[in-house]
Specification:
Elements (H helix, E strand, L loop, with lengths): L1 E2 L6 E5 L4 E6 L10 H46 L12
Antiparallel strand pairs: 1-2, 2-3
Length: about 90
């Protein structure tokens, strides 16, 4: 028997063919003692996801205002500049 490095399962290997002939999964460990605790943890994670969603939605709403303000600033800079705008073929 050999232990699998990725999942710690017990592997039975045939030495002649060098192939796995049996695969025994290790028993899963319980991370929660009872069902009430598990539901509480799920509720906390759901509330955290909801809060992250609200923050992302608020930042997306402000993103349009920010982009508009930057655009207005760039227009003002272009208007105040005495130099004509550079054209792509002028660099050749």
């Amino acid at each position: 028997m050999v232990e699998c490095p990725c999942c710690q399962a017990k592997l039975t290997v045939d030495p002649e063919v060098r192939a796995v002939i049996a695969h025994e999964e290790p028993p899963r460990k319980r991370t929660v003692a009872d069902l009430d605790t598990a539901f509480g943890a799920l509720g906390a994670k759901a509330a955290e996801r909801e809060e992250r969603f609200r923050q992302a939605r608020a930042s997306e709403a402000d993103k349009g205002k920010l982009l508009d303000r930057k655009f207005q600033e760039s227009l003002k800079k272009a208007k105040d500049s005495p130099d004509p705008p550079r054209r792509p073929f002028d660099n050749e």
